[in-house]
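Q: Could you fold this chain for me?
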Amino acid sequence: ASISRWTNSLRNAIRQHPGHDELFGSFRRAAYTEGSELLFVHAAIDPGAPLTAQSDHLWWGSPAFRGLAQPYAGFRRVISGCNPRGEGAHLDAFTCCLDGGAGFGGTLNIACFSLDGAIVENFAI
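A: Sure. Below is the predicted structure, expressed as structure tokens.
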């Protein structure tokens, strides 16, 4: 209950400054290539839900993301940058997670993808 009260007071404080609701509402939650070949998300997707209904799965992940058995919504590959469960980087047939544990003693992984979803170049720092 105290977290709910704190969240509500934070929302009220933000709403006292015009334009903030519009700004937060315009943040993109996912990005995709012009031809919808690749989908880029923060953490994951829920394969059972359309992109417009992903909600928190984009931020906090979904156990069904890893090992996706078929392309999601016509995208050749879904690429995430974070694995909230700490499972690290992976590359499967239709998904890729680049999380190498940066900020927690691991690496920052970077990759360049071709439109068919293949990794063209990658490195870790």
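A (continued): Helices lie at 2-15, 20-26, 57-60.
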